[in-house]
Design brief:
Radius of gyration: 22 Å
Number of domains: 2
CATH superfamily of the largest domain: Type I PLP-dependent aspartate aminotransferase-like (Major domain)
Distance between the termini: 19 Å
Strand content: 15-25%
Largest sheet: 7 strands, mixed
Strand order of the largest sheet: 4-12-11-10-7-5-6
CATH architecture of the largest domain: 3-Layer(aba) Sandwich
Number of strands: 17
Length: about 425
């Protein structure tokens, strides 16, 4: 504990460096009654500025952000290159629609196909839309082959694929479905990650398997390579398509550009979003040409998907993440962070049951209520995200430094001490 205190005292230089440049912001006079729908249990925290891994509230207090807008701000807040790219594009052209060629959309698609399994891309506005697109492609593929009765998709309990009617039906969670029934047909849920269970569920009407390589909302559950390879084998055996939902795990988050790459498993379709635009709303559905060829004019569309603004930011973000050694550095930082978290597990076995995840997509399985620990962390000006199964998600910007990881560990330790005393 003495070591931690001394180290923390040294690390205050991080705050001092940023505080010298920050501009204090007066508290806004907001009305007590909100005009927003009550779909979120919002904190009173309101942030007005960000810089790197730091967020500043209305009083100028700075918070270490290990949430990244829920795995969105890949390169941190207000990255200077992204700010410039957005400003430059905004001064030229915002929107034309997909009735015309969008040059930087073509450029982004080429970068994505060059660096992944994919040969074709459809751009969306969100993760849920990307998953919806994947579902439609899988069903349309069977239809184009003259097998319109093959339209059922195997999915897994505990997964999260978005909040549209289709994606909540795919996840099958009672919490997500309550009040929004009936559940859409066409999805066969598996209760556990078992190849035997999957094979038993496959029927003549099955067209695809949909799964997250690393469950995000589901509690940072990393599926084994043997399981993912087994799914691929089943798809080949029964002529099914394999869909990976990498909305949260993709775009470098795991230490590979796409999380499934570490297992050397080649899917047919992948859904992306979140980190692709670093906060600008954009998603993508990637597919092989063999599969994507079933999507002909009129089968799918999007008014805003792949607009010049989103593609400009996503292109710069993607190029940055694909720079030499950037991904390997994420793996190193993830290993370093995980070691720090495992040390905390040794100190607080009564509070941390397990450290999960890969790269900078990490999680803590909590013994006590995760929301209480998150509140304690906020008191230490440390921002984290809750997950299912009483987990705490750690999703910092991929640009976080080793020094900032040390600082986060110190703040988390102080929060755990508060928990123990409470």
């Amino acid at each position: 504990m003495v070591f931690c205190w001394i180290f923390f005292k040294g690390l205050t230089s991080i705050e001092h460096k940023i505080q010298k440049e920050r501009s204090m912001t007066k508290i806004a006079n907001r009305p007590s009654e909100t005009s927003l729908m009550s779909t979120y249990s919002r904190s009173d925290l309101a942030f007005v500025r960000g810089e790197g891994v730091w967020l500043f509230d209305e009083e100028g207090k700075m918070f270490l952000d290990l949430a990244s807008g829920i795995a969105v701000n890949s390169l941190g807040h207000s990255h200077p290159k992204l700010v410039k790219v957005l400003a430059d594009q905004g001064s030229k052209l915002w929107h034309t629609s997909n009735l015309y060629t969008v040059p930087n959309q073509e450029d982004l698609a080429r970068v994505l196909t060059k660096n992944t399994f994919a040969e074709k891309v459809f751009f969306t506005n969100s993760g849920a839309e990307s998953v919806e697109c994947a579902i439609k492609i899988a069903r349309r593929f069977s239809f184009a082959k003259g097998q319109s009765n093959r339209n059922r998709i195997i999915s897994f309990e505990g997964s999260f694929h978005g909040r549209t009617t289709g994606t909540i039906s795919a996840a099958g969670s009672r919490k997500l479905l309550e009040g929004f029934g009936p559940r859409l047909p066409g999805f066969d849920l598996i209760k556990k990650f078992s190849l035997e269970s999957v094979e038993k569920k496959i029927s003549k009407r099955t067209c695809a398997i949909l799964i997250e390589p690393i469950l995000g909302e589901g509690g940072i559950v990393t599926l084994t390579c043997s399981f993912l390879k087994g799914l691929k084998d089943l798809c080949e055996k029964y002529n099914l398509l394999l869909i990976f939902d990498e909305v949260q795990s993709g775009i470098g988050r795991s230490g590979h550009f796409l999380a499934h790459e570490s297992c050397e498993v080649i899917p047919d379709i992948v859904a992306l979003a979140k980190g692709l635009g670093n906060g600008f709303p954009i998603g993508a559905c990637l597919a092989t040409k063999r599969v994507a060829d079933c999507m002909v004019p009129g089968t799918h569309g999007s008014t805003y998907g792949g607009n010049p603004l989103g593609c400009a930011v996503a292109l710069e973000t993607t190029k940055h993440i694909l720079k030499p050694r950037f991904l390997s550095e994420i793996r190193k930082k993830g290993h370093f962070f995980k070691e720090k978290l495992n040390n905390l597990t040794d100190i607080f076995p009564d509070q941390i049951l397990e450290v999960r995840g890969r790269g900078l997509m990490l999680g803590l399985k909590c013994a006590n209520k995760n929301v209480k620990l998150i509140d304690m962390c906020r008191q230490e000006k440390l921002l984290l995200v809750p997950g299912a199964s009483n987990t705490l998600r750690i999703l910092p910007p991929l640009t976080i430094t080793y020094e900032e990881i040390e600082e986060a560990t110190v703040r988390l330790e102080r929060a755990l001490l508060k928990m123990r005393k409470s």
